[in-house]
Amino acid sequence: MAGLQTEFEFTLPRGYVDSNGNLHRKGTMRLATAMDEIAPLRDPRVRQNQAYLVVILLSRVVTKLGSVDRVTPHEIESLFTADLAFLQQLYRQVNEHGTANLLVTCPECNGELEVDIGSLGGSPATPSTGSTRR
Question: Where are the domains of the chain?
Fold first, then answer.
């Protein structure tokens, strides 16, 4: 019998840019516990604005983001919206199905195949920021 996978690696589509301008795209998310979903409801920021729930929740389950070993609400708040949406989708997939793999149907041949959505965010070959700041 195979063991339960509790951590899932991912690559963000855009990436988190820290205060030093470093880009962090690869990370790890763990399965959520009941407390991960309950505790944010006690947070005053969530009580003031229910939309903040996702920030607190993701900061609890994203265990690594590039060289950032302790992900806090600050890092999640600073993500680009595409990255936030990506992490929300990954969270739902791994916690509802226990895997980052999604069964998809090819529109050309109607064949089914499994795709690891954790790797869909991008790859090291994908251009990173396109920033033109000097």
Answer: 7-119
